[in-house]
Write a structure and sequence with these properties.
The structure is a single chain. This protein has a single domain, classed as Zn-dependent exopeptidases (Aminopeptidase, 3-Layer(aba) Sandwich). Helices cover 45% and strands 16% of the residues. The chain contains ten helices and six strands, in the order αβαβαββααααβαβαα. Strands 2-1-3-6-4-5 form a six-stranded mixed sheet, sandwiched between helices. α2 packs across α10 and α7 crosses α10. The structure holds zinc ion (ZN). The site of zinc ion has 6 residues, from loops.
Length: 249
Amino acid sequence: MIRFYALILALIWAFTASAYTVVIDAGHGGRDAGALGLVTKEKHINLAVALALGKMITENCPDVKVVYTRQTDVFVELNERAAIANRAKADLFISIHTNSTAAGTKGTSVHGTETYTLGMHRANDNLAVAKRENSVIMLEKNYEQKYEGFDPRKSESYIIFELMQDRNMASSVNFARNVQNQFQQTACRVNKGVYQAGFLVLRQTSMPSVLIELGYINNANEESFLNSTSGQQKMAQSIFNAFRQYSRK
Ligand SMILES: [Zn+2]
């Protein structure tokens, strides 16, 4: 009889343990290329790292379900990305992007990784990143209605983020710090830190969520690293290590 109860308990554990879901969101895709480098586009780097990360989690964490917002080069609207995570009742949302300075393909010496959580834009630099990433909604039909008049180019639009209370903030920041530390330790990248900014895609998710900027696509060295299979593997490995360290509660 004790064995029977042990079996039932094991089954309950297996059932509840398998309930942990991670959504991996490869930024941009399809007609939205994201930031442009000299030899590649942001959307391709994001997808390669997202797929590599998902593979590592699937192979090493049988208790975790991986859901992707896209697995191919297709356009997915921002609010649909968040809706996918909400429908999946995800426990963690990881949005993967690649950064660029305003100089674009002219190039920059700026380099390094940043990880963002949703929050107030205290610095103008963070606002610039949020504006650029949010501006993709202008490629969607009826974006003004869908996002309730939000104009991604106007600073005034971002006031809404200052009024928000994010109950997932502590968990999000915790995971973001793990990610940044791992980029430094595992992938030998320059850690530019954890920041908060007003990202629409994070605003609409109802679980701990981060937006990662893997590096600057308009920095020639960083672009060639991020465009290489070994570089993409190291970035995925870093996020995977951070996920393993993160308390999944
Ligand atoms: Zn992006």
